[in-house]
Amino acid sequence: MGYMDDMRDEIKSSCQKRLKRIEGQVRGLSAMIEADRYCIDVVTQIAAARAALRRVEEEILRDHVAHCVEHAIRSGDKADQRQKIAELMDVVSRADR
């Protein structure tokens, strides 16, 4: 992987902060299950964790398009352009499943 494939520092920092919060949410979920909390409360917290993960995913994808894909387009390298588009299509199609 080259320089343009690396995530920008501010995005990395933002995602790390979000993931630390999500990590706490997941630990909380485990504690809720251990404490026999009401099922709907547990499911509500699972939905919140999933939404938080989706926000991290979207932030990373936005950064990827804004920098890696844009770089491939500007470079004029057709093979790199095709690869970046194929990667995006693959990840988007997996997200729909």
Describe the protein.
The protein has 97 residues and is an all-alpha fold. It has helices at residues 9-34, 39-75, 78-95. It has a single domain (9-96), classed as Metal-sensitive repressor, helix protomer (Methane Monooxygenase Hydroxylase, Chain G, domain 1). The chain has three helices and no strands.
Distance between the termini: 28 Å
- Considering DSSP H and I runs of 4 or more, what fraction of the residues is helical? over 70%
Please provide the ordered H/E string of secondary-structure elements: HHH
Q: Percent of residues in beta strands?
A: under 5%
Please, how many helices? 3
Q: What is the CATH superfamily classification?
A: Metal-sensitive repressor, helix protomer
CATH class: Mainly Alpha
Gross geometry: elongated
- Could you tell me the mean pLDDT? 91
Query: Count the strands?
Result: 0
Structural class: mainly alpha
Tell me what the CATH architecture is: Up-down Bundle
Largest sheet: none
Name the poorly predicted regions: none
Protein name: Copper-sensing transcriptional repressor CsoR
Pfam families: Trns_repr_metal
Organism: Afipia felis ATCC 53690
Family: Belongs to the FrmR/RcnR family.
